[in-house]
Amino acid sequence: MTKANTGMMTGAKMIVKALKDQGVEVVFGYPGGAVLPIYDEIFLQNDIRHVLVRHEQGAIHMAEGYARSTGKVGCALVTSGPGATNAVTGLTDALLDSIPIVVLSGQVPTFMIGTDGFQEADTVGITRPCTKMNWLVKDTEKLAETLHMAFHVAQTGRPGPVLVDIPKDVQFGEGEYFPKEKLRLGHYQPRVKGDLDQITRLVELIENAERPVFYTGGGVINSGPGASQLLRELVDATGFPITSTLMGLGAYPASGKGWLGMLGMHGLYEANLAMHGCDLMINIGARFDDRITGRVKDFSPHSVKAHIDIDPSSINKVIRVDLPIVGDVGHVLEDLLRIWKSRGRKVQKPALAKWWGQINEWKAVNCLDYKNSEKTIKPQYALQRLEALTKGMDRYITTEVGQHQMWAAQFLGFEAPNRWMTSGGLGTMGYGLPASIGVQIAHPEALVINVAGEASWLMNMQEMGTAMQFRAPVKQFILNNERLGMVRQWQELLHGERYSHSWSESLPDFVKLAEAFGCKGIKCSDPKDLDDAIMEMIRYDGPVIFDCLVEKHENCFPMIPSGKPHNEMLLGEADTQGVIKAAGAVLV
Amino acid sequence: MSALKIKLGSSSHSAYDLRDPYAEVIESHTLAIIVDNESGVLARVIGLFSGRGYNIDSLTVAEVDHEGRKSRITIVTRGTPQVIEQIKAQLGRLVPVHEVHDLTVEGPSVQRELALIKVAGKGEQRIEALRLCEIFRAKVVDSTLESFVFEMTGTPEKIDAFADLMRPLGLHEIARTGVAALARGV
Q1: CB of A51 within 8 A of CB of A27?
Q2: What share of residues in chain B are helix, strand, coil (percent, to 5)?
Q3: Could you tell me if B93 lies within 8 Å of chain A, comparing CB atoms?
Q4: What residues of chain B score a pLDDT lower than 70?
Q5: pLDDT digits 0-9 by tens, A10-31
Q6: Hey, are the CB atoms on B86 and A313 less than 8 Å from each other?
Q7: Whose CB among A7, A21, A83, A509 lies 3.0–4.6 Å from A78's, allowing a Cys bridge?
Q8: Contact: A153, B95; criterion CB under 8 Å
Q9: Through-space distance between the first and last CA atoms of chain A, rounded to whole angstroms
Q10: Rounded to two decimals, what is the model's pTM?
Q11: Which residues, at least 6 apart from A44, have a Cβ–Cβ distance to it below 8 Å?
Q12: pLDDT (tens digit, 9 = 90+) per residue, A401-447?
């Protein structure tokens, strides 16, 4: 209890108060000896809701799903030792995808640190490379201040995961509460406003470009919904084509007139060729990841490249750019639009028309075409039907990792940001199920669908218990091909069809599994039954495990094999339709 | 879909492009980094170098501002110009880092290192070692009938040269502090 007229309280109480002051509404966690005092305080209050997970990795991924779908900081609480080490995968995932989360971990008492105590681990040492910043609090007086600093670091500049390690005696100890307003931010205040001279030079380039393209990424999502709004305005006003990375889908609507589709290793033909043949490439909030660039030497050889990024270390890391602009996407786009408009909204209209003509020729190749079947469900068909039947609903999509993830990115259309949660940078199988629960907790009335492969889904399947307990009616749309599909594809194309350990043996009966958890199981293997089955999944009031048996040996195209430039794509089925007359070799 | 005919030895066997995009001249740079004097900060800086495969040729660290609780880390590293720029950017975005200075490019600088060198020898070798010690303006800080310990400060090159000369004269052990450096002027 707080002593009258003072801010004196235990460390555990400080933690709960600090979370409340930071606007945290939900904490995902799992108790243990080293965090019992905190759990005691959580029990004694009703402002912050706690979601009990089944594995600490699930807690972190739930916090990630929560954060990406709301724009707020996700929060997780784990115990010492194995609790903290189980969080490492989620922390690394959040670091690579720039998701703001604060993870609190318990620790053995300060006098026991270094003695190989029960459930002791060098948490700050282990998590140092996988967090943006981490702290070990050794003094209760410093606890609240450290927590406020943690929230500041997590969401400032390039967002990322932070961890605060709190020994048990610090939780029991008493100290004066340090309010959020007193926090001195110190020197960590990254630059958000872009340099106006650089932005003006970019406007000049825009005014003169004949074959421009916008290349956008997760940075637009992280900058907030305002940034997506400004992006739409800019793209539609200039009439330039726009493509996006996996992490940036939804910032510009898929139905927009400038939309080329996703680019990259499994991106669309027209998107990759537009990037290759452009004369001005404007990178907004993306980082030239190797899945996008293909062979670096041959990446977009004849273009001038501008790069808007809040992280100076992203600039010139992989690809040399000609015009770097360090700043927050939202702030920079605001200035960019203002300056471009004030100079008369100039673009090269005739050249642009010609460029769009070329792009439309590439679109006509219809690179996502596949041979459909009356007998087996093709995974692409399953996603097309899912898109058609859920379009226009209040829908959030998460995915696991693999072929299904790429097909989901290709065949689902995103009209708004924060609707698409996927593990891009780290590619964590087992991300989707817990992430879908995190999203559902944040949006209880929405339709939340996790598109999964059967192998990925099994990695964190225990979290179905969490979904049931907290009444999170998440729809698990499992594309079951009884294979590790993406690995199998690489083994087929690059390793002489030597399928080394890339099939799923001893799979559970997913319908029986659903019933065992107390929710609904649906199994579908006939394309004629698919629409009805999907509607049944949507209408069921509760979690659903949908076992969709799909074609076992389908390959995901287009594909840029490694070591190839991004205008040398494999096109699979569309290849054989003879519509190609693009310059640049296309390998079969 | 038949398997691609991949040439043996090409990098297409990997999920990653294995060839180095811009191979250029390797340069040596001296970086001075001002950081918070908190536990774990040095580990974070070192972890950055080892995690990303950057070289550390020399490292010194000590508190330089007691009231402001700041330390100065001096690192000598090697890499292509693009890698050096990346190192500086990666250091700059670490939360506990206040400033990053590249003393090799920001203008002329002073670089010094301290070494303790133990030379064990008798007769002519012992006399020659003492003579060279005078020439290099090193100090004798320990002497027995069979050995000396010399203390020397200077540029790393000077210390290298002295150690090379001592080697045939009975160089026994050497302890070096690593480079401390400051920019000239203000």
Answers
A1: yes
A2: 30, 35, 35
A3: yes
A4: 1-23
A5: 999 999 999 999 999 999 999 9
A6: yes
A7: A83
A8: yes
A9: 72
A10: 0.92
A11: none
A12: 999 999 999 999 999 999 999 999 999 999 999 999 999 999 999 99
